[in-house]
Amino acid sequence: MARMYSSRKGKSGSSKPFMTEASAWSNTDAKEVESLVVKYAKEGMTTSQIGIVLRDKHAVPNARLVLGKRIGAVLAENDLGGSYPEDLMNLMRQAVAIIDHLTTNHRDIHNKRS
Questions:
Q1: What is the pTM of this model?
Q2: Predicted local distance difference test score (pLDDT) of residue 21
Q3: Are residues 74 and 67 in contact, defined by beta-carbon separation less than 8 angstroms?
Q4: Which of 16, 40, 80, 114 could form a disulfide with 45 if both were Cys (CB 3.0 to 4.6 A apart)?
């Protein structure tokens, strides 16, 4: 059965395996991975987009295990990070979009709390 107060239907789902060090088959050169992170950030990618590109194109399943720090920390060291975290910025953008929608569509009462 579905949950009463959410759109989810249960607790099951995949989760990342617990690992303390990078896999043997992955790219483990920290300097190369850090230069890739900086390069992609200068191209305008977000931290999650950088992680996906590293995973799919450069055989780095978890950048944190290779670098010893998160992608956001690497960007902050190189003065490329934003003033707000990416997930908080996405929430603020969504809130602004809903406010704009509700100003033009006053009778849309179902989306007031979405």
A1: 0.78
A2: 87
A3: yes
A4: 40
What would the 3-class secondary structure string for the chain be? CCCCCCCCCCCCCCCCCCCCCCCCCCCCCHHHHHHHHHHHHHCCCCHHHHHHHHHHHCCCCCHHHHHCCCHHHHHHHCCCCCCCCHHHHHHHHHHHHHHHHHHHCCCCHHHCCC
26 touches 57 (CB < 8 A):
no
> What average pLDDT score do residues 92-107 get?
93
Decide: residue 98, CB within 10 A, 0-12 exposed, 13-18 middle, 19+ buried.
Answer: middle
Write out pLDDT tens, residues 41-94.
Answer: 999 999 999 999 999 999 999 999 999 999 999 999 999 988 899 999 999 999
* The two three-digit tokens of residue 63, written as one number: 């950048």
Q: Please name the residue that has the structure tokens 């849309």.
A: 108
Q: What pLDDT does residue 36 have?
A: 97
Q: Are 51 and 33 within 8 A, CB to CB?
A: no
